[in-house]
Amino acid sequence: MSDTTESQTPDEVFAICAMDEIAPGAAKAFDLAEADGEGGAKPFRIVVARAKDGQFFSYRNACPHQGVWLNIGSGGFLDETGALIKCGRHGATFAIETGYCSSGACEGAFLQKVDVEALEGDVCIRGVTLVEEDPPLRHADDMDETMEIMIHPG
Ligand code: FES
Questions:
Q1: Which position among 24, 68, 118, 153 has the lowest Cβ density within 10 Å, counted as fewest Cβ atoms?
Q2: What does pTM read for this prediction?
């Protein structure tokens, strides 16, 4: 057992998956950890969506309406066209490229953007002090409704 953690400064980039793990018109959840400023870590849950033109975009996995994970219920993030991020709770839709909600209960609001870029074949995020924990970070692309109980309201 070890309580050692390895943190990264915000200027560093952090590779979270290979580019080809997310096809154009698809999205994937990642359950990461960020430094809490007090020597510990707190959950950093994001979605990485790949637009049909191949560009990557990332947002905190929280709907502006009620704060739930966007993939609650269905486990998926995109609408049937693969062109919009869709909240599984009440169906608000968001532009993949901007996070802008053009339809639904939180119309006019934005998803919280995370800086993401493609580097040397990997999808990388920057601007967040990530903490690597033991056991290693895991992909959380199979969330389901039961995970709702882990969300703290407020
Ligand atoms: S919680 Fe997302 S639209 Fe209501």
A1: 153
A2: 0.81
